[in-house]
Amino acid sequence: MQRKLPFLPGNSFDDHLLRENHAKKQVFNYRNNQAVINDTYAPQEPQELPESTRLLTQKLGSTTLDASMGVGSESETDSSKWLSLDRKVLRFYCYFREGVVESANENSRVRRCVLYYYLEDDTIHVSEPRQDNSGIPQGSLIKRHRIPKPDDPNVFYSIEDLNIGEEVTLYGKTFRIVDCDKFTRDFLEMVGVPVSTPEDYPQDQYTTQRNKLKESMSARIQMTEQDREFKRFMEYTSKGRHCKPSKVEQSAAQQFLKNDRKVLQFYACWDNRVNLYGDFRKFSITYFLSNNQIKIAEILPSNSGRDPFPVFVKKQTITNPTTGRIYTPEDLGIGKKIHVFGRDLLVYDIDSYTQQYYKKNYGQTDFTPIEVEGQKKQKSTVSPPPYNGYGTEEDSLGSWKYLVLKPPKKDIAKYMQFDKVALRFMSQLVTDAPEDRERRFLICFHLADDTLSIFEPPQRNSGIVGGKFLQRCRCKNNDTGKWFEAADFHVGATVRVNNYVFKLLETDDRTLSYMESDPTFDKADISSVIVNIRSRAERNGTRVREAFNRLDREGTGEVSLDELRDLLIGERLTENEQEVITVLRNLPKTSENNVKYSDLLLQLTPQAPQESLNASSTIKVSTFNEESTRVQDTRLRKQFDQIKSNVFDDFKQEVKNRRLLFVDTFRVLSDRSTDGLIGENEFAKALNSRMQCNYSDIQTRALIACIFPKPNSRLTPVELMKIFEGNSTYGEMREAGT
Fold first, then answer.
1. 3-class DSSP state of 491
2. Mean pLDDT value of segment 579-587
3. What is the DSSP code (8-state) at residue 320?
4. Residue 483 gets which letter from DSSP?
5. How many Å apart are CA 223 and CA 245, to the nearest integer?
6. Per-residue pLDDT tens digits for 214-252
7. Looking at residue 678, what DSSP letter applies?
8. d(CA 449, CA 72)
9. Which has the closest alpha carbon to 442: 466, 407, 418?
10. Which of 3, 354, 675, 702 is 20 to 30 Å from 647 at the Cα level?
């Protein structure tokens, strides 16, 4: 058959379609004692190889030379040559440039790859390491096979074509080799191939821009001299606004903050038997590190006949008569005596915490107790046997406690209260395995019985079958050795379940609402979170007001959620993500992504009159009105007026949506009062309890300031409803509403 069609795109055919003989030929064959496949359309090896390749293959014992020789040749391939190169791979680091036409930030992109050369069969495999959030399909670029050269399809790439500084073209992509691993370098030098020095990867425009951005970002903000002076001023004025504590008071305050609730326990004895009617008595000495005070209590044995006075010497500072100074930890220890009101007490033993304290601060290692008379023998205690694996741990413990088995008691009231209530968190595995990093797990903690269940949602093309990961059961916290509790779970926490470490990433609104209503979740309590943020800001010397001014340069009083999150985390004002979520949920939103920060700023700024809002649970409106009149900062007044306007408009909308609830609440408050009127305190208590408005303290005070502008004013339920409906005849209330 002759080609009569023009050789144009779409009119060309493969040569095997033009053959006249279409008989099926033999495919399987043996060559050099190896099973091979005779592919008619595969590139054929040349009969003769270049001299350099021949010499290199002779040194390596490669199969390249033997594969080019026909069957029955005089030079038979020995199987030991192939085995000597089995599982030996040369690894080269290379890159190729890829043009970018759809981006204005870069013209080309440098893609780093790894080229593998298998010595056993001269095959090549090219792979590109995966990068997070690259948006590029990465992984295996070229599968393992022998690659022909572009200029001659019958000649394949060999080891002599691969070296540092060389460029190889594989299927239209030009790869430049810049480096190799230690094994490849040693192997090539062993066979006499010189290896050049490694080259650096070229930098593209996008990578250079990202590196400059990372260098400009500082992980920690250095304090200026002005910041240090402000920090020192705040420390000096912590006792009061107009009084400066002395150096002794400052030292005492620092000692108290450093050593609060840290005590040293000593056991001493007093031998007074040398005197008439004297006795041998034992005492317990407690030394308080927070203020260097000492409390002494007598240890009375059974049937001693002495009156059981609880304290022998009350908590006070005791002076050492030999030095004239108060007793310090250096004056106490095993074998030392303490003189207390004419009595010499000999210290003969200390507890474990005191041993660690002396070992850490004074370098003592010998804590052998002194043997004294009448030491109480320790009673042998019987510890329960370990869990035998049958049933629950409560069942096994019941079989050890009771001769007649009793089923463990269940908290029925807890079951009824928290039935079908669960805390749900989305989490991920904390592991070094790359295939497990993208897996997500749904952790449910059931409050009814403190059980835990884990479910893995199936992900498409992940290669992992999703489903139930952990059956609902009680699990122990490996870090504490106790059963998991609800307080152990919050966003940002890390929990270990059966040697699997999970990091909690996010949760739903129902879980957040429950955490905010339960006082055990301190990181979800806005009051405690605000107190912690203020303490960290004072400790770090952070100027909160200036930080917010940098974000809000236009003075709108609004910032985005992402900007506020970056501010709290960047200034080290929060410890974890849960505190950030708590702050964001309690701020009024002006749009989908913006919030008003005036409420938060009033509570964080030291000059604000509301800085003690979170310290008290009761609302004192009159005190707030008196303090607000002393505010000298005009900006704070404007911010508070803005809060009053916003919260009053929001409350009017709530009254409109839930009119029956508010009318019934005002009627109940009026019936419970003696004069049938509603005052400031009654309204404040019912605002978040019965009305369920969930306002913060500053919002509650602002709303009360709008409704009750005069101190000790009281209104009827009808007049209150008229105020929120806008038709009140009370002039001052009408002005407050507008």
1. coil
2. 82
3. -
4. B
5. 24
6. 777 655 567 777 877 777 677 666 655 545 666 777 888
7. B
8. 79
9. 466
10. 675
